[in-house]
Amino acid sequence: MELSEKENRYLKAKKRVAEIKKFYTSLISYVVFIAFLAALNYYVNEFRHPWFLWAAFGWGIGLLFQGMKAFQWFSFFGKDWEEKKLKKFMEEEKQNSRNF
Question: Coil, helix or strand for 76?
């Protein structure tokens, strides 16, 4: 039983590392691509109309949520929360069946 618990923790840790790696890859892509768009915007109209900011803002919001998920900043409804609620409800059901 302990071996499976150890494997379970390993798989969770491996999944989390993969999410963090994916976030950093996305962050690097974001910086490179937005820098390219900014350079293109400057070349075309010298920032008179900074349209690249729309792309930076939109993509940045998605990147923010990806980072929040990868680093578990708001894990209110994550897997741990689900497991705790399941255990709580199962325990309540067990106690209710004992009372009757």
Answer: coil
pTM of the model: 0.71
- DSSP state, residue 37: H
Task: Please count the helices (runs of H) and the strands (runs of E) in the chain.
Answer: 3, 0
In angstroms, the CA 11 to CA 4 distance is: 10
pLDDT tens digit sequence for 20-48: 999 999 999 999 999 999 999 999 999 99
Q: What is the largest CA-CA distance in the chain?
A: 77
**Number of residues that make up the chain:** 100
Sign of CA dihedral 88, 94, 97, 99: negative
Domain boundaries, the chain: 2-74
Distance between CA atoms of residues 14 and 47, nearest Å: 43
